[in-house]
Task: structure prediction
Amino acid sequence: MEQLYYNGKIITISGRDFEERPVEAVLVRDGMIAAVGSLDDVRAASGEQAVMVNLEGGCLMPSFIDAHSHMVMNGQMSLCADLTECISFADIVRVLKDFIAARQNAGDMPVIGYGYDHNFLKERRQPGREVLDEVSTEIPVMILHVSGHLACVNTPALRMAGIDADTPDPEGGRIGRYADGREPDGYLEETAMQQIQKAVGARMPFDITKMMQGMQQIYIENGITTVQDGASTVQDLMLLDQMARQGLLLVDVVSYPLMTDEIRKIQEQFSHLTGGGDGHLKIGGYKLILDGSPQGRSAWMSEPYLNGEEGYCGYPWLSDQEAERWITTAVEDKQQLLAHCNGDAASEQFLTLYEKVIRETGCEEDLRPVMIHCQTVRNDQLDRMARLNMIASVFVGHVWYWGDIHLHNFGSARGSRISPVKDALDRGVTVNFHQDTPVTKPDMLHSVWCAVNRISRSGAVIGEEQKISVYDALKAVTIQAAYEYFEEDTKGSIEAGKRADLVVLDRSPLDVDPMEIKDIQVIMTIKDGAVIYRRQQAEKNSM
Result:
C-alpha cells in the first residue's frame, strides 16, 4: 500500500527545509517513508497503485512526540469531576454536588475532583475541609490541584485515611493544619497526598473501558503518535500491557516506572517490555521525583519565595542519601533516568548526585538522563547538563499558564527566566517540550507558540531573551523528543527509511504570524502510514 502526499507545505525537520528547492512530495509505502523530494522524482519512485493524497495547501510534517506526560492518569481524570473552570469556592462546591447528583447507585463511594487552581480562585487560597464539608459530611471528597502536587479533602476523607492531629508530616510532604499547629485543615502537599490517594483510590470502581478511551484519544486529536506514561505504577503497567496485547494502543507508549520498592517487581513482571518493547509499548527507563510545584510553592529553591513566609524555599522529596541510592540503581541497571526538578535546588541535587554516581561507577553508557520541567534551572547547571548529555525536557507552557504567578513568587529577575529554553540551546543542551498532561492539554502547537512568543495570560512578555525560532521550537516537539527515547533514527523527521508517523496541519507554523501558531488546527494524524484521526470525520461524528 502506497500513499503519495503532495500539494502542500512539507516540513521535514531533516535539514532540507531551507534548501533552495523545497520538498514537494512524500511517498509512504507499507507504513514507512519510501521517498522524499520533488513531485516528479517521488512520483517516479511510486507504483501505479499509489493513492494520491492532495494536501490542498495544508502542511505535512512529522507527527508530534510527547516527551513527558501521564497517560494513565489522563484516563483516570476523565472519570473525575472537572474543576478546571472553577473560579471560586462556591463553583467547586456546586460542580462537586452536581457530580454526586449525576452518579447512579454510588452510595458513599468517594468523590474525586481534578483541576482546580488556587492561583485563579476568587479567594486566592486553598479550599480546606470546611469548604469540602459543604459538599458532604458523609462521603469522602478529595480534589486535586491542577499541578498534581497538592490536594484538599473533607473531614470524612481525613478520617478514612487515618490522618489526625497526631499524624506527623511525611518526608517530602506537608499536612496543612489550623492555628493550633496540630489539627489537619484538609490541605495536603506532595507525599502527604499519597495516604489519602491510596485510601480513596481503593474504593473507586473505575470504568476501565471508558478510561481506556480517554487515555489516548486526546493525544491523537492533537497530532501526537508517541506518548509517555511518566511515573507508572504496577497497576498502570498492567493496564497498558493489557491494551497492547489486545491491540488497543493506536499510538506508541513509553513507560517510566516510578522508583519505589516495587521497581524490581516491575522489572521481573514486565521484562518483555524492556528493549524494543511489544505491541506499541515499551519501558524506557525509571522516573524519580525530587521536588514539587513552583506555582504551588512547593518546588525546592536555592533562594526564598517572595510574598510569603520569610526565608521559605520549598523542600525536597528525598534526602541526598535516598536520592543517591535510586540514582545508583538506575545507572547500575543501565536505565535512562527521568528526574522531576522544578526548583533550582532540586536541579542541583540531581546534577551533583548524578555526576557523583557516574564518576564512582565509571559508567560510560549513553544513558541520556532527563531533567523534567527545568523551570528554574540556572546557566551554571545547564553547562553541567551539556557535559553529561542530560536532556532538558521543558514545560514551556508555564510561561503562559503561570508566568504572572512566577513573577509574583520569584520577582522579575528569576520569574522572567522560567523555562530558559534559549539559554539551554545556546549551551548545547538537547531541549524538548512537554505539557505534563493532564496538568495541561497535550497541545504541542501551544507549546511552540509559548516558546516563540513567551506571553503570559496578562499579556506580559516573560523573558524576551529566552524566545527561540519557530523551527527550533518544532524540533523540540519532534526530532529532539525522539532523541529522548533513543528513536531519532526511526522517528521525528520526514526521511526515507523512517516510520510514517505524520501530521497534517491546516497551515504551516513557519509561514503564519507567530502569534497565530496556537490557532493552527490538526487536520489529520497518521501512525505508521495509517490515518488514525481525521478532523472532518471527528466533527461529523460529534454532530
The longest strand covers residues 224-232. The domain at 210-491 is CATH 3.20.20.140 (TIM Barrel). The chain has three domains: 1-62+494-543, 80-201, 210-491. The radius of gyration is 23 Å.
